[in-house]
TrEMBL record:
This is Cation transporter. It is found in: Membrane. Gene3D superfamilies: Cation efflux protein transmembrane domain (1.20.1510.10). GO terms for molecular function: zinc ion transmembrane transporter activity. The keyword Transmembrane helix applies. The lineage of its organism: Bacteria, Pseudomonadati, Bacteroidota, Cytophagia, Cytophagales. NCBIfam families: CDF.
Length: 311
């Protein structure tokens, strides 16, 4: 039996877009890393350095990651249409998931190359390795700094920030490895350091991959405790029961909520809904909320199952 929505109060709130415009940060990050990748590839081939080539490969994947994230962020600003009623915000989730997948694909290729260098070691120009990796510390560190402001509220931006920060730390490791090869002559150190680089990048990126998969499946963002939201709704004045509570991501920075609240009497409904929207936005960063108020609990089966009620 379908539930009749007539006569009930509805509230809709569309939150503002994610704070900050990172177009310039993406642009600078892409240009600087492309130039640096070209230098690393040339230097790695000349110096016969697997560590330098692996770092260049990862930086190239970061360039693609930045480009995809930038394109998705631009799409997310486009207005909603009759067909795309939420706009194109979901593109940021798809871009983040694709970036995570491409990262691990690049790691697999780099691993293959590193194993080949380990089986067939060749002399390494340690001084050149240290010079280029030192430049990498500056390039990646500055790029990470460009994204520091928005990395807490957007998975797209956080992905860029973490990749650049990780690359900076990896470049520090390459400098140390180049110095060790230069002073000891132990050629096996170069591919060994490359293995360490792969492990660091793979482990540090696992959380990002897991989160993007969850977002693509419309799971509630990790930053939101659904049980806490439910208890918050139950604590509102006059609410006796909450059912059909759904929380899902519209994008990597915007979250939506729908819920039915049983509130007998329903006095001051407009004021109640206005305050509820405000608190959901500020307490849980839920920017789009749709709430339906009901005088009584619907018949079992109309909505599936009733979630929670006040004891």
């Amino acid at each position: 039996m379908a539930h009749d929505h007539s006569g009930h109060d509805h509230a809709h709130h569309h939150g503002p877009p994610a704070d900050g415009n990172f177009s310039q940060a993406f642009k600078w990050g892409i240009v600087m890393n492309l130039v640096f990748v070209a230098g690393e590839v040339a230097g790695g081939l000349w110096a016969n350095s697997a560590a330098l080539l692996s770092d260049a490969g990862h930086n190239l994947s970061d360039v693609l990651s930045l480009a995809l994230a930038w394109a998705a962020s631009l799409l997310a600003t486009r207005r909603a249409t009759e067909r795309y009623t939420y706009g194109y915000k979901g593109a940021t989730i798809q871009a983040a998931l694709l970036n995570a997948a491409l990262l691990y694909l690049a790691l697999g290729f780099i691993l293959w190359e590193t194993i080949d260098h380990l089986r067939h070691p060749v002399p390494v120009n340690g001084s050149l390795v240290m010079l280029l990796a030192g430049l990498g510390i500056l390039v990646n560190g500055f790029t990470a700094w460009l994204f520091r402001r928005g990395q807490k509220g957007d998975v797209n931006v956080r992905g860029a920030y973490l990749h650049m920060l990780t690359d900076m730390l990896v470049s520090v490791g390459v400098v140390v490895g180049g110095a060790l090869v230069y002073f000891t002559g132990w050629l096996w150190l170069d591919p060994a350091i490359s293995f360490i680089i792969l492990a660091v990048v793979g482990i540090s990126s696992w959380g990002l991959l897991r989160e993007t998969v969850q977002l693509s499946l419309q799971a509630a963002p990790e930053s939101i405790d659904v049980a806490e939201v439910r208890q918050f709704l139950l604590s509102r004045p006059g609410v006796t029961q909450v059912h059909d509570l759904h929380i899902w991501p519209l994008s990597t920075s915007d979250t939506a909520l729908t819920a039915h609240l049983v509130r007998p009497g329903g006095e001051n409904g407009n004021l109640f809904l206005r305050d509820l929207q405000h608190d959901l936005r500020h307490e849980f960063n839920i920017s789009h909320s749709t709430v339906q108020l009901e005088d009584a609990l619907p018949l079992m089966g109309d909505h599936g199952c009733c979630d929670e009620q006040v004891a």
